[in-house]
Design brief:
7 helices; 227 residues; 11 strands; 8-stranded mixed β-sheet; 3-stranded antiparallel β-sheet
Length: 227
């Protein structure tokens, strides 16, 4: 499948797949979308609920992709001095030739951490790596349907390709796995807002709320595993 590096509206880059007319991040701004959906309404929201958390916050990312979400979470964890244990699941890892063309450290104005961004991708799969005092990373090369953990994570970043091109990733079966993998009172955030996605989440037991979306999207979803 053909792949192109393109620049989104906020100046940050992403990977575009012409055959699908799909990209890894929003064309309206890759970094803006990631910060809005996953940091503001995911990571920081969880911290607002549990400001005195002592244990590392356990995050599962569905679609490690370019590593943008992991990188900005690392930056936020260091800024807030909160320990994070981050797991990224990816069936088709992005190659280093493409990673080296992405401009996230420059656009985020953390060029001194460009080596860390590259390092996230160079690390071995299936092993836990201490990246900094506040961030551990485990990358798992497998399909989302193969996730088997139970009651493990506090937060899920659900960043799969859209339902238009990969509807099998937005089914009740997948969201049942997401519900099972979360700890009680854990949350899932995603850029998606389709009614079918919301209903699939609700069917498996999530309490779902609509939130204002990132630039270019009216709404997004946040789901909670209530006990």
């Amino acid at each position: 499948m053909e792949r192109k590096i393109v620049i989104t509206a906020d100046g940050s880059s992403t990977i575009h797949l012409p055959d699908w007319d799909e990209q890894y991040h929003s064309k309206h701004g890759a970094i803006q979308e990631a910060n809005h959906v996953f940091i503001k309404h995911g990571f920081n929201h969880y911290l607002s609920l549990y400001p005195d958390v002592k244990h590392p916050i356990s995050i599962l990312e569905i679609g490690f992709g370019t590593g943008l979400n992991a990188f900005i979470t690392l930056l936020e964890a260091e800024k807030r001095q909160v320990a994070v244990d981050y797991t990224g699941v990816e069936g088709y890892p992005v190659g280093m030739d493409e990673i080296n063309q992405l401009n996230y450290p420059t656009t985020l104005e953390v060029i001194d951490k460009a080596h860390i961004f590259r390092h996230l991708h160079e690390l071995s799969w299936e092993n836990n790596h201490m990246i900094s005092s506040f961030f551990c990373l485990t990358k798992q090369k497998k399909f989302f349907s193969e996730i088997e953990e139970i009651n493990t994570f506090n937060i899920i970043y659900f960043d799969a390709f859209g339902a238009r091109v990969q509807p099998e990733l937005w089914t009740e079966a997948i969201f049942q796995k997401m519900y099972d993998v979360l700890q009680p009172n854990g949350i899932l955030v995603t850029y998606a807002a389709k009614g079918s996605v919301r209903r699939a989440m609700q069917t498996v037991g999530f309490k779902v709320e609509k939130l204002p979306g990132p630039p270019g999207k009216r709404e997004m979803l946040r789901a909670r595993k209530e006990v």
